[in-house]
Amino acid sequence: FCTPCLQECLKPKKPVCGVCRGALTVGNKALDLEQLIESTETACSGCGKEMFLSKMRSHAASCPKYQNYIMEGVKAVTKEPLQNIRNFPNRFTFPCPYCSEKNFDQEGLVEHCKTLHSKDARQVVCPICASMPWGDPNYRSANFMEHLQRRHRFSYDTFVVCDYDADEDDMMAQVLMRSLRDK
User: Fold this and answer.
1) Backbone angles phi, psi at 120, to 5 degrees
2) pLDDT tens figures, 97-110
3) CB 3.0–4.6 Å: which of 14, 18, 73, 147 could bond 9 by disulfide?
4) With contact defined as beta carbons under 8 Å apart, do 125 and 171 qualify?
């Protein structure tokens, strides 16, 4: 899984499985998977030595041939010129517009602002909206707390695959249609 997907799945208040989105609870082990890892043999991609998957991580850390194998892969991937890589804005973590505390996901920012800044009447720019293609990074909400409650109680990408080139109203319509189908 990529880091943004893991961050979304492992939110502190309600962590979910990255595959089935089922709730994660402390102490539940996937015993069948653990057994499979203990009993499945494979070969090291560097030296070719056969071992159980459960031993692969410690072997890979000490196998010089495996380290070379990984470095060759890194070199192959990084040979492309950097100008071909598109610069995507961060739409996963946001700073608080009141106190500049950083790295909140959307839900975390809403909770933080409700808890610590509910009485602050300053007009601020919504960092979530500002990160979107349709967002205006200079627009200051007259009532930011109400804006958060109305627009950001949930994340669109929880309900639809986000197309950030789509219009916000179209995305909201998709969310509403899906919610009706899921009843």
Assistant:
1) -80, 120
2) 999 899 888 888 99
3) 18
4) no
CA separation, residue 146 to residues 19, 69, 89, 103, 168 (Å): 34, 54, 25, 21, 18
Domain extents in the chain? 44-79, 94-160
Residue 168 CA neighbour count, 13 Å, CB half: 12
Nearest alpha-carbon partner for 105 in 25, 12, 39, 177: 12
Helices 31-39, 53-62: inter-axial angle, 10-degree rounding: 60
- The tens digit of pLDDT for each residue in 62-92 reads 888 988 888 887 777 666 555 544 566 677 8
Q: Which of 155, 143, 147, 141 is nearest to 108 (CA)?
A: 155
CA distances from 36 to 29, 30, 41, 54 (A): 13, 10, 10, 9
Residue 128's nearest CA partner among 115, 141, 116 is 141
Q: Confirm if 146 and 113 have CB atoms less than 8 A apart.
A: no
